[in-house]
Amino acid sequence: MGILSTLTTQDELTLTLTDPVTTIYYRAPEMFTNLLNSNEWHRGVSFVLEGAVLPKTSTGVVKPVSIGIIRPPVLLLHGWTGDPSSWMPFRDNLVSTGRYEADQILCVDYSATNTAPFYENSWVLENNLKTMRRRFEEKGYVVAQFDVIGFSMGGIVSRLYTQGIGYKNDVHKLITLNTPHSGSHGAVHLCRLDNTTK
To answer: Which of 42, 89, 99, 164 shows a CA-CA span of 20 to 30 A to 34?
Structure first.
């Protein structure tokens, strides 16, 4: 087992090893930005492994290991009767900041079933999280959590996943916009109207 020291301003870590087999867990900081690269979509972290069990170079120096970290990818879920095009201006704006690459943002498409009941769309977020996870694994990144923004029904569908029994703690932040978490007032008025016409 090893112990990670705290991050310095240059994001350098030192790990001292005492056993021949060591597992290293790195948790990215809550705030991705730092003074050196506040507008970048990724940054590097270097750490040095030290210990008697490590093979040394001919000069006796252990080479630093570098890993790249990225901002959590973002999934954007449209609302009832919507489609992914409703999110494209927002997505393009995020990309233009330089803080995200285009493939870090997925405008989820469930337009084929977006007028169906919520439970029929409960699979939407989970399946798209799996797709994004695979996409980044193919690029050499391990993504544990994602940021999710849901508009209207997209917020309900996202909340169903995060509150469901199959939730895998893989949503870093969930933001819902104009989502009727307490039900739709329009539906209440329609029900009242229907009762008065009987």
So the answer is: 89
